[in-house]
Design a protein that fits this description.
Blueprint (H helix, E strand, L loop, with lengths): L6 E3 L5 E3 L7 H21 L5 H8 L20 H12 L3
Antiparallel strand pairs: 1-2
Helix pairs in contact: 1-2
Length: 93
Amino acid sequence: MVIEVVFESDLAGGVIFRAAAGLDANAVAAVQECVRWRLLRGLVRRGLRTGDDAQAMAQWEHGGGFSVDTSVRLEAEDRAGRERLLRYDRRKP
Protein backbone atom coordinates (compact mmCIF):
# COMPACT_ATOMS: atom_id res chain seq x y z
CA MET A 1 0.00 0.00 0.00
CA VAL A 2 1.28 3.49 -0.86
CA ILE A 3 0.36 6.43 1.34
CA GLU A 4 0.70 9.75 -0.43
CA VAL A 5 3.24 12.22 0.93
CA VAL A 6 1.48 15.15 2.59
CA PHE A 7 4.54 17.30 3.22
CA GLU A 8 7.93 17.94 1.68
CA SER A 9 10.97 20.13 2.36
CA ASP A 10 11.25 23.50 0.70
CA LEU A 11 14.47 25.22 -0.42
CA ALA A 12 14.65 27.35 2.75
CA GLY A 13 14.68 24.28 5.00
CA GLY A 14 11.02 24.60 5.94
CA VAL A 15 8.13 22.32 5.21
CA ILE A 16 5.40 22.56 2.57
CA PHE A 17 2.18 20.70 3.36
CA ARG A 18 0.08 19.26 0.53
CA ALA A 19 -3.51 18.10 0.71
CA ALA A 20 -3.65 14.31 0.77
CA ALA A 21 -5.83 12.92 -1.99
CA GLY A 22 -7.14 9.46 -2.70
CA LEU A 23 -6.78 8.09 0.81
CA ASP A 24 -9.01 5.09 1.35
CA ALA A 25 -10.07 3.46 4.60
CA ASN A 26 -7.10 1.06 4.53
CA ALA A 27 -4.60 3.92 4.25
CA VAL A 28 -6.24 5.78 7.14
CA ALA A 29 -6.23 2.59 9.23
CA ALA A 30 -2.50 2.12 8.52
CA VAL A 31 -1.72 5.66 9.67
CA GLN A 32 -3.90 5.20 12.76
CA GLU A 33 -2.08 1.99 13.68
CA CYS A 34 1.32 3.66 13.26
CA VAL A 35 0.27 6.62 15.43
CA ARG A 36 -1.18 4.29 18.07
CA TRP A 37 2.04 2.27 18.40
CA ARG A 38 4.29 5.32 18.45
CA LEU A 39 2.23 6.97 21.18
CA LEU A 40 2.04 3.81 23.26
CA ARG A 41 5.80 3.27 22.97
CA GLY A 42 6.32 6.87 24.04
CA LEU A 43 4.13 6.37 27.10
CA VAL A 44 6.12 3.27 28.07
CA ARG A 45 9.47 5.03 27.49
CA ARG A 46 8.43 7.89 29.77
CA GLY A 47 7.25 5.49 32.46
CA LEU A 48 3.62 6.61 32.16
CA ARG A 49 2.39 3.11 31.22
CA THR A 50 3.81 -0.37 31.58
CA GLY A 51 4.51 -2.52 28.56
CA ASP A 52 1.62 -4.79 29.55
CA ASP A 53 -0.74 -1.79 29.74
CA ALA A 54 0.37 -0.65 26.28
CA GLN A 55 -0.17 -4.12 24.81
CA ALA A 56 -3.65 -4.28 26.37
CA MET A 57 -4.56 -0.80 25.08
CA ALA A 58 -3.41 -1.73 21.58
CA GLN A 59 -5.87 -4.64 21.60
CA TRP A 60 -8.91 -2.60 22.58
CA GLU A 61 -11.78 -2.82 20.13
CA HIS A 62 -11.72 0.87 19.23
CA GLY A 63 -7.99 1.01 18.52
CA GLY A 64 -6.55 1.80 21.92
CA GLY A 65 -8.24 5.15 22.21
CA PHE A 66 -6.51 6.71 19.19
CA SER A 67 -8.20 7.68 15.97
CA VAL A 68 -7.36 9.62 12.84
CA ASP A 69 -10.14 11.97 11.74
CA THR A 70 -9.70 12.61 8.03
CA SER A 71 -12.56 15.12 7.98
CA VAL A 72 -10.46 17.73 9.80
CA ARG A 73 -8.38 20.03 7.66
CA LEU A 74 -6.89 23.42 8.47
CA GLU A 75 -5.38 25.93 6.12
CA ALA A 76 -1.90 27.19 6.99
CA GLU A 77 -3.17 30.70 7.74
CA ASP A 78 -6.13 29.54 9.88
CA ARG A 79 -4.84 30.57 13.30
CA ALA A 80 -8.32 30.47 14.87
CA GLY A 81 -8.82 26.95 13.49
CA ARG A 82 -5.53 25.76 14.98
CA GLU A 83 -6.52 27.25 18.32
CA ARG A 84 -9.89 25.45 18.23
CA LEU A 85 -8.18 22.17 17.41
CA LEU A 86 -5.67 22.58 20.23
CA ARG A 87 -8.41 23.51 22.70
CA TYR A 88 -10.39 20.43 21.63
CA ASP A 89 -7.32 18.27 22.12
CA ARG A 90 -6.73 19.66 25.62
CA ARG A 91 -10.29 19.07 26.87
CA LYS A 92 -10.95 16.41 29.47
CA PRO A 93 -12.37 13.09 28.26
